[in-house]
Amino acid sequence: MEETDSGAEPAIDWDSMTFSFTETDRMYIAKCKQGEDWQAGIMQDFQELRLSPAAGVINYGQGLFEGMKARRAEDGRVLLFRPELNARRAQGGSRRLGMAVVSEEMFLDAVHQVVQENIRWLPPNGRGELYIRPLIFGSGAILGVAPAPEYTFLVYAVPVGLYFKGGMNPIALKVSNEFHRAAPGGSGGVKAIGNYAPGMMPSKNAKAEGYAEIIYLDAVHHRYVEEVGAANFFCVKDNVLYTPELTGTILPGITRLSTIELARSLGYQVLETKVDIEFAMGADEAFCAGTAAVISPIGSIEHGGNVATYCDGEVGAVTKQLYDALTAIQEGRAPDPFGWTPSV
To answer: 253-291: b or e for each residue (b if 16 or more CB lie within 10 Å)?
Structure first.
């Protein structure tokens, strides 16, 4: 993609964008020595990193990331979505991985700066979003298995296209009976970088068979739904919503929490509980929730040779109501009674 000067709109066909990487103008970076306070962060031109081959993140996977979006509202405002929850989740993850903790104030300041200094990359209203990627990782050199002596906090942003081009299309999923995402006592509840590589091969295999993604079951009983690839799972039975409870093996998704709170505000009962795959196969509707897709309807699930079909091209009424209500708040098209969408 060709760029114009740094003050002009990039020469991008907004309507052809996908969820993929594009180099933008500026990024935020800060460093912290183990046991000390974070140094003041700086904005710098987007550039490659220089790391020791012995960096903790490279050798031992000591790192985490967050994913969030900025959107341009119809009235011109630039809206974030519950960024303080990303900051708090990153803090919990840093503690679990033995890393320096970034304060909520520092995290939010970095996000705001990155959005402001890459504002020309923010797509017009209704044509995409600016995806923001904060990272915290062990950048210092370490040979033994131990916390790195130095940490880096980095934030960059990338323009991405709308996840649903031409409407919401129900996806087909396959239950994984061979692979599991996380085990009790592990790091499944953290957005750790090491949680994602093991899922790439099962996901690739499922896509080769014509499925959109994998559904993971729990690693102990092999019967309770955990996550859909990198998204949280919901199903609807008799107008009651069910979603796997947070037991430390699944990610506490911000879209997941927002869906629960929004559904309850609309009068729905929502149960956070163990969701047996057989129960899920008999549900009326099913969908997954995450930053990228917001709410993605599930059309069918294959498990052990059996296929549960929830909809054949037509999205379930509850799923559509929640998607419409949540995206209207996120995009500033509806009042935000929850205070979820601060302006940049």
So the answer is: bbbbbbbbebbeeeebebeeeebebebbbebbbbbbbbb
Asked if pLDDT for residue 2 goes beyond 60, the answer is: no
234: number of Cβ within 10 Å: 29
Q: Are 185 and 42 in contact (CB under 8 A)?
A: no
Q: Which helix (H) or strand (E) element contains residue 34?
A: none
What's the longest Cα–Cα distance across the chain? 57
User: 292 pLDDT band (50/70/90 cuts)?
Assistant: confident
CA distance 270 to 272: 7
66: which residues sit within 8 A by CB, 6+ positions away? 86, 89, 90, 132, 133, 134, 135, 191
Is residue 33 annotated as a catalytic residue, yes or no? no
Which domains occur in the chain, in start order?
A: 14-160 (3.30.470.10), 171-330 (3.20.10.10)
Three-class SS state of 273: strand
- What token pair was written down for 296? 């993605």
Identify the residue whose tokens are 């993971």. Answer: 216
The secondary structure element, H or E, covering residue 325 is: helix 317-330
Q: Select which of 191, 204, 207, 320 is catalytic.
A: 191
Count other Cβ atoms within 10 Å, centred on residue 312: 8
On average, the pLDDT of the chain sits at 94
pTM for this prediction? 0.94
Query: Helix, strand, or coil here: 75?
Result: coil
